[in-house]
Amino acid sequence: MRVLTTLSVVVLASAGIGHAVLTGLDADIARVDPFKDMKNRPRAGHGMNVLLVGTDGRDRISQAQRRQYRLGGAPCHCTDTIMIVHISEDRERASVVSLPRDSYAMTPAHVDDVSGERHHGHPLKLNAAYAEGGPQLTVRTVESMTRVKIDHYLEVDFTSFMKTVDVLGGVKVCTAGPLKDSYTGLDLPAGTHDLNGGEALQYVRARHVDGASDLSRMQRQQRFLAALVERATSSGILLNPMKFRDVTRAVLGSVRADKGFGTDELLDLGRAMRNFSPSSSEFTTVPIGQMGYAVKGVGSTLRWDATKSQRLFKALRDDKPLAAHRPAPGSDAVKVPVAPSQIRVQVENGTATAGLGKRVDSALASTGFRTSRVPVNAAERTVRRTVVAYDPRWDRSAKSLAAALPGSELRAVKGLGATLKVIAGSDFKQVRKVRAAEPPRAESGVVRGDEVGCG
């Protein structure tokens, strides 16, 4: 993820290295003015809020690297990743909130960044705000949605990300199961891996590892950020002025930032964060209330859970730890590879028993699975053993769903796609509670940096 490296600048500054090492480096930062003429902004809270956005920038990567790391195609004028990073007023905690790029958003009235045409507020996907109105409309839209005042804006692209990972000597990640994505070329077996810049870019960009798509990708980005912090704070790089300068230059060389974010701000913040570590950080994704929320002219979007998201953003405004809101996982639930909330399911009634499909659909939905809520009749109505049909690319999701249906049969069907199918048989009795076996998933709560690293 491109924006991960920007937060690492803050961490790297914690060495307390003198101003002389960094003097002049902020001249490499391209400046933008995302706060120009902004009115009616949210009231400032405590601490500091940084809006981090990741953009494409593949046009600045060599042709050989573009082929090696599957970066073909034209770069888009849009944000690929959006995060709010809150640094507590006491400088002892960093809270990172991922905002899905497909989030349903309503823009404030604004002037088009390209045509100069004035627009009234209208619906769009959050990442499209950048294409329409640049950094300024992105900041205004995020502030309107969250009521969190943004203090600084940082924008990073592919180039900065890859260079930073390489100058750090690589970053270690670990995976509970194999990760493979034909789109980015990611192919990691289960275990621990030391990733270079290009491999790390594949790891954080992959969206086709499982049916969770962008939500799964954001969780991987959060894990990578924790690993990046661990690498920066434990490797001795912070104590080597020249290495520190090289890392900082790699980051700042392809960053765009607001005019108020410079060397002095980095050093002031860094000196206050000398004891920063992965356990000082916490990560979450804004709670989603409805997946696949269809909007005319926009397409399928993610609609935030109004109550839960308001609670989350109030914690940022009040400078409170997000972990205080973490729900305790159910002790009676069976552990599975993928969280139910990431698995889409279509239920079919494979028997002549009226209402069985609806009963199975409701039971799965109440356990957290993303069912269609519109069960249908199967072509065959004499099914005895319940079947979980799945595309082989989503085998981990299939195992999780089958665990919730004791005695069911797993049946691989190539080309079925991301939505799994349950054909309810006459043996159906109940749905068993399941939960993700890996560290707590970001969409269900908050995780600390030391909970998502290899340790």
TrEMBL record:
Keywords: Signal. Residues 79-233 form the Cell envelope-related transcriptional attenuator domain. Gene3D superfamilies: 3.30.70.2390, LCP protein (3.40.630.190). InterPro entries: LytR/CpsA/Psr_C, LytR/CpsA/Psr_CW_biosynth, LytR_CpsA_psr. It comes from the Bacteria. Transmembrane segments: none annotated. This is Transcriptional regulator. It comes from Streptomyces davaonensis (strain DSM 101723 / JCM 4913 / KCC S-0913 / 768). The lineage of its organism: Bacteria, Bacillati, Actinomycetota, Actinomycetes, Kitasatosporales.
